[in-house]
């Protein structure tokens, strides 16, 4: 009787402990699910003192996205060359049609754009000779890697064929040895007479 009561008490204790563990686990999950408070956004205005004087120790630099806009044409030299050729063709067309003012305005605008980009620290790729050189370099690199890859494939094929030949030779040799062994046994037993 006492043993029965003790067993029941132990079962109840275990159930209570399991429930407590579940509850703690749920609480931990709820804490991880709740979002942490986001820091407040700083104002873009300069901080002002009580006397409406600007405090110069706090700065807010606004970053422009001008670099990300020109990335595609800047990275690919072929695109950059096409762009330059298009603008040159457009300028020639304007000069030939007699709109010299518009052509000079376009030239001025492009020179200003490149100057501003250079001032921002963007690499301006407007030298045709350098762009052609980089295209040639890129093509050479591509051809070289292609040749290396083909050479590698040839080597892999040769190695594969050598291994297959070696395997065939080993299998043939093993079969030959088995046959010789059988013949020797047959001679020993007197089944085959030489």
TrEMBL record:
<feature type="region of interest" description="Disordered">
    <location>
        <begin position="64"/>
        <end position="84"/>
    </location>
</feature>
<dbReference type="InterPro" id="IPR007019">
    <property type="entry name" value="SURF6"/>
</dbReference>
<protein>
    <recommendedName>
        <fullName>Ribosomal RNA-processing protein 14/surfeit locus protein 6 C-terminal domain-containing protein</fullName>
    </recommendedName>
</protein>
<comment type="similarity">
    <text>Belongs to the SURF6 family.</text>
</comment>
<feature type="region of interest" description="Disordered">
    <location>
        <begin position="136"/>
        <end position="194"/>
    </location>
</feature>
<keyword id="KW-0539">Nucleus</keyword>
<feature type="compositionally biased region" description="Basic residues">
    <location>
        <begin position="175"/>
        <end position="194"/>
    </location>
</feature>
<feature type="region of interest" description="Disordered">
    <location>
        <begin position="1"/>
        <end position="49"/>
    </location>
</feature>
<dbReference type="InterPro" id="IPR029190">
    <property type="entry name" value="Rrp14/SURF6_C"/>
</dbReference>
<feature type="compositionally biased region" description="Low complexity">
    <location>
        <begin position="64"/>
        <end position="74"/>
    </location>
</feature>
<dbReference type="GO" id="GO:0005634">
    <property type="term" value="C:nucleus"/>
</dbReference>
<feature type="domain" description="Ribosomal RNA-processing protein 14/surfeit locus protein 6 C-terminal">
    <location>
        <begin position="10"/>
        <end position="183"/>
    </location>
</feature>
<feature type="compositionally biased region" description="Basic and acidic residues">
    <location>
        <begin position="26"/>
        <end position="40"/>
    </location>
</feature>
<dbReference type="Pfam" id="PF04935">
    <property type="entry name" value="SURF6"/>
</dbReference>
<feature type="compositionally biased region" description="Basic and acidic residues">
    <location>
        <begin position="75"/>
        <end position="84"/>
    </location>
</feature>
<feature type="compositionally biased region" description="Basic and acidic residues">
    <location>
        <begin position="147"/>
        <end position="174"/>
    </location>
</feature>
<feature type="compositionally biased region" description="Basic residues">
    <location>
        <begin position="136"/>
        <end position="146"/>
    </location>
</feature>
<feature type="compositionally biased region" description="Basic residues">
    <location>
        <begin position="8"/>
        <end position="25"/>
    </location>
</feature>
């Amino acid at each position: 009787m006492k043993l029965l009561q003790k067993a029941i008490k132990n079962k109840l204790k275990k159930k209570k402990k399991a429930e407590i563990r579940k509850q703690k686990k749920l609480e931990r999950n709820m804490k991880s699910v709740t979002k942490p408070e986001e820091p407040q956004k700083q104002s873009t205005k300069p901080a002002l003192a009580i006397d409406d004087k600007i405090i110069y120790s706090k700065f807010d630099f606004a970053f422009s996205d001008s670099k990300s806009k020109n990335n595609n044409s800047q990275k690919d030299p072929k695109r950059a060359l096409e762009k330059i050729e298009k603008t040159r063709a457009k300028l020639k067309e304007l000069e030939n049609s007699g709109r010299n003012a518009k052509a000079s305005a376009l030239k001025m605008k492009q020179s200003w754009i490149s100057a501003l980009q250079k001032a921002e620290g963007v690499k301006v790729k407007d030298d045709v000779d350098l762009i052609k050189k980089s295209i040639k370099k890129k093509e050479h690199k591509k051809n070289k890697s292609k040749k290396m890859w083909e050479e590698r494939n040839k080597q892999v094929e040769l190695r594969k064929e050598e291994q297959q030949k070696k395997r065939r030779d080993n299998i043939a040799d093993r079969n030959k040895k088995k046959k010789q062994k059988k013949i020797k046994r047959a001679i020993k037993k007197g089944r085959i007479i030489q």
